[in-house]
Amino acid sequence: MNDRSTAPVDRDRDLERQVQKLYQFSLRRRWLFVGFCWLILAPLSLWALRDRISLGLDYLTWALVRTTLIFDPIPSLALGFCIAILAAVLFAQTYRHLFGFSPQYRQQLERQVMRIRATGQNHPLWKSIVNNE
């Protein structure tokens, strides 16, 4: 009878451990994407904007910012995207670190873990999330 009462607790611990592993995996994936953006997009954008940046170091005006956005939109937007994605990941990670998971996000992670469990060894994340206890 004692084994029956501890079985759900063990399952909850396993589920919690797997949810944490899935969260860590998604967090690593997000940071890899941010790193990719900063290693590929940012240098290319900065290189394309090098003349405007050197002019901006001497005379930074709103007109310079406006003309840069109008006449060099792709490098400007790429650099803005790098900054925005970095800020978004930092904000989300800081929020979850300070306040924990929201109930909706925790439920989403639990559903993903259940989907991984249901798929079994055919799922690409099975080995790292479920089987790697």
Name the features:
6 helices, 133 residues, mainly alpha
N-to-C span: 26 Å
How many H/I helices? 6
Helical residue percent band: over 70%
Helix and strand sequence: HHHHHH
Rounded mean pLDDT is 89
**Residues in β-strands, percent:** under 5%
Secondary-structure content class = mainly alpha
Tally of DSSP β-strands? 0
What characteristic shape results from the CA principal axes? elongated
The main sheet comes to:
none
Which regions are unreliable across 5 or more consecutive residues at pLDDT < 50? none
**What is the C-alpha radius of gyration, as a whole number of Å?**
23 Å
Explain how this protein is built.
By secondary structure, the chain is an all-alpha fold. The chain is built from six helices and no strands. The chain has helices at 2-48, 50-58, 62-71, 73-99, 103-119, 126-130. The two termini are 26 Å apart.
Give a brief outline of the structure:
The chain has 133 residues and is mainly α. It is built from 6 helices and no strands.
